[in-house]
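Retry 2 of 3 after timeout on previous attempt. Resubmitting structure tokens to design endpoint.
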């Protein structure tokens, strides 16, 4: 994996003037954040060996390099999901490539369902931890001791505290909680949501957790924020669909852009 990542990183370096220091993965409905990147260089995933070609609406399939919040960034406009191919390692090579390019920090975003009625559609939730309800790992099949990854404080506590303080200063409501990963693509049942609440979950979704695991293996500092698009199954009368997800993700995109731009400006490393 690492040799292939180095080769893809060399390919990208030929087209960008500056090495990125922060990587961002954009979830459904966050195209506006990609548009906010200045001095953009856009590369299609299809041109980059090992990068996923998304099959989900709202995932553009572009790597965008430039500046955001005064920082050199590499923005992944879309991600691979376990449910697309039945593999949890779809983002491994892409994240290893971003590390090889020089990224030290990874910011993850996603669209999620809330288990907390006080954190409803259109709001944001800072992730402090996760539960792997899918039961699979992106590290299956790897050799060596690196695969035994420590996930204590996988979501960097210092960054989480900084984001929470920034949100308060900006007047952006920001819930906090534990993200529960379900494999998808179907939505969860009301019984599964009840089980997730008993286990301590605050949001549910179909992505992000594999990326956190790989990022920690690579030594990247991880921060993650969910855009709440719905109350989870059985908690409201809403009919769940991907179209519904996209609608409410777009509604939260403005606050996400303000918060992450301020976070990047506030970084001191």
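Retry 2 succeeded. Sequence:
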């Amino acid at each position: 994996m690492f040799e292939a990542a180095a080769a893809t990183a060399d390919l990208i370096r030929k087209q960008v003037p500056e090495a990125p220091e922060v990587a961002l993965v954009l979830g459904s409905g966050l195209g506006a954040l990609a548009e906010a990147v200045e001095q953009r260089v856009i590369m299609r995933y299809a041109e980059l060996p090992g990068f996923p070609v998304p099959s989900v609406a709202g995932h553009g399939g572009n790597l965008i390099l430039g500046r955001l919040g005064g920082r050199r960034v590499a923005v992944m406009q879309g991600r691979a999901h376990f449910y697309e191919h039945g593999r949890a390692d779809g983002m491994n090579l892409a994240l290893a490539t971003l590390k090889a390019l020089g990224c030290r920090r990874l910011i993850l975003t996603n669209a999620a369902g809330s288990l907390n009625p006080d954190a409803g559609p259109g709001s944001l939730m800072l992730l402090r931890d996760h539960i792997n309800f899918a039961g699979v790992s992106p590290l299956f099949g790897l050799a060596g001791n690196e695969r035994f990854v420590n996930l204590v404080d996988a979501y960097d506590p210092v960054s989480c505290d900084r984001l929470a303080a920034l949100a308060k200063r900006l007047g952006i409501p920001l819930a906090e909680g534990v993200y529960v990963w379900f494999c998808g693509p179907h939505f969860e049942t009301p019984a599964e949501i009840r089980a997730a609440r008993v286990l301590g979950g605050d949001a549910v979704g179909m992505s992000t957790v594999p990326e956190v695991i790989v990022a920690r293996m690579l030594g990247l500092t991880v921060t993650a924020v969910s855009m709440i698009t719905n109350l989870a199954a059985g908690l409201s009368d809403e009919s769940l669909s991907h179209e519904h997800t996209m609608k409410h993700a777009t509604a939260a995109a403005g606050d996400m852009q303000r918060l992450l731009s301020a976070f990047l400006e506030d970084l001191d490393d």
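Attempt log closed. Residues 114 and 203 are 4 Å apart (CA to CA).
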